[in-house]
Amino acid sequence: MANAPTKSKTQIECVPARDRVDCLNLVQQRQADIVPADPEDMYCATKVQNQDFVVIQEYRTVEEPDALQKIAVNSEL
Q: What PROSITE patterns does the annotation carry (predicted)?
């Protein structure tokens, strides 16, 4: 696991996963809390059994204003 410094006292740890689908499964299994997700990842999230993911934020960049990055979290945080 990698630790990332933050401006607050919150600790962030990166949990390694095999791929993006594995990241979604880790969130579903409560082994991870948050995962950056593309639209196709969100589609895959709808296919995960017992899923309760919530999209909490969308990011757009100046370089790609029509592209967006979504963040999914588990609603049981």
A: TRANSFERRIN_LIKE_4 (PS51408)
Query: How far, in Å, CA of 76 to CA of 12, rounded?
Result: 18
In this structure, are residues 1 and 13 in contact, taking their beta carbons and an 8 Å threshold? yes
DSSP track, 9-55: S--EEEPP-SSHHHHHHHHHTTS-SEEEE-HHHHHHHHTSTT--EEE
C-alpha radius of gyration, the chain, whole number: 13
Residue 38 domain-assigned (yes or no): yes
In a domain, 49, yes or no: yes
Full domain range(s) for residue 61? 12-74
Total structural domains within the chain: 1
pLDDT above 90 covers a percentage of the chain that reads 3
Please check whether residue 6 lies inside any domain of the structure: no
